[in-house]
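queue> pop job 88
queue> type: inverse folding (structure -> sequence)
queue> payload:
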């Protein structure tokens, strides 16, 4: 029996000519990973992601739950992080343009998502779309501002005495101001992480440009 697609009678009200997702290598690799997942398990993961998406200070899954998910989904930690991040990104972008189910379906097809996984995303989106959009509209802006950024490059030698390969990374220190003072946040990004971060900043810049 063929799987019925949700929202097939719905028509989009805005153009789908412009791609909703930036098809970076990381994004496409994540789509390929998602295409390998069990449909039922994927649906459960997507449901949790979209339920928590409007919460700024709460991850969709706890550290313990993420450890369990690596075994359930057959992914390593890095692969799981990528899948969770990209799935949240898909819903964020859809919410930003208040995409209809049909519009999201078209963009996911263009991104290379398989028919079965597309249906999983669409069912979750169709069910949670009104609540998510309303929650995002009502979300309180966190009173924190970025005051300063500093960084340094770091090279770590491989533990293998034969290879002696240098692994470069960038260490960032962010000075954040809030009502009670300032705090410093440190994070380390390797080349792939930095490239993905750069892509997200470009997306944010484009969204700001569209609003201005």
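queue> result:
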């Amino acid at each position: 029996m063929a799987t019925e697609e949700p929202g097939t009678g719905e028509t989009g009200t805005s153009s789908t000519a412009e791609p909703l997702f930036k098809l970076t290598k990381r994004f496409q690799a994540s789509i390929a990973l998602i295409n390998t997942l069990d449909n039922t398990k994927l649906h459960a993961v997507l449901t949790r992601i979209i339920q928590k998406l409007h919460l700024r200070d709460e991850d969709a899954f706890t550290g313990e739950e993420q450890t369990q998910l690596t075994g359930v989904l057959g992914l390593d930690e890095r692969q799981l992080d990528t899948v969770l991040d990209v799935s949240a990104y898909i819903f964020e972008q859809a919410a930003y343009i208040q995409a209809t189910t049909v519009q999201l379906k078209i963009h996911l097809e263009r991104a290379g998502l398989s028919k079965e996984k597309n249906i999983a995303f669409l069912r979750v989106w169709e069910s949670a779309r009104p609540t998510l959009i309303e929650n995002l509209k009502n979300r309180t802006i966190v009173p924190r501002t970025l005051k300063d950024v500093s960084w340094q490059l770091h090279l770590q030698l491989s533990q293998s005495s034969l290879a002696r390969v240098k692994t470069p990374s960038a260490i960032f220190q962010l000075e954040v101001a809030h009502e009670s003072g300032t705090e410093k946040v440190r994070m380390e990004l390797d080349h792939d992480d930095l490239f993905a971060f750069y892509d997200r900043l470009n997306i944010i810049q484009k969204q700001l440009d569209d609003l201005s």
